[in-house]
Amino acid sequence: MDPDTPATPAPQPSIFRWVLGFLMVGACWGLTTPFMRRAAINYTPPARPSLTDPNNSWLKRKVLGIWWAVIGVLSRPAYAVPFLLNVTGSVWFFILIGQAGKSQKA
């Protein structure tokens, strides 16, 4: 291939595909949020002795409390599955925005 020949731009997706993509992102965000909220509210953490140990400093107890809360919530499928779908929607959003910027430059 000759390096002097101009590259042909890729065909742009139709407006229907753009709208469908953004609707899917909105559905991923909007439909998963109530499930994540309910799973987080219904979560009761197990007793952890390190969180009430008076030998641990206040800061260490707070950091451990946050750590165990995050691990506990993410290890439950009732929260983890909607969370992964929500994050996937975020990735789709940034991909769509990146493609929209490319189509404006062409």
From TrEMBL:
- Give the record's keywords alphabetically: Membrane, Transmembrane, Transmembrane helix
Could you tell me which Pfam families the record lists for this protein?
TMEM234
Q: Which residues belong to the signal peptide in this entry?
A: none
Please provide, in alphabetical order, the Gene Ontology terms of the cellular component aspect for this entry: membrane
According to UniProt, the name of this protein is: Integral membrane protein
The transmembrane segments are: 15-37, 58-74
- Read off the InterPro entries from this record: TMEM234 (IPR018908)
Q: Where in the cell is it found?
A: Membrane
Report the superkingdom from the record.
Answer: Eukaryota
Which membrane topology describes this protein?
A: Multi-pass membrane protein
Q: Which organism is it from?
A: Didymosphaeria variabile
Predominant location: membrane
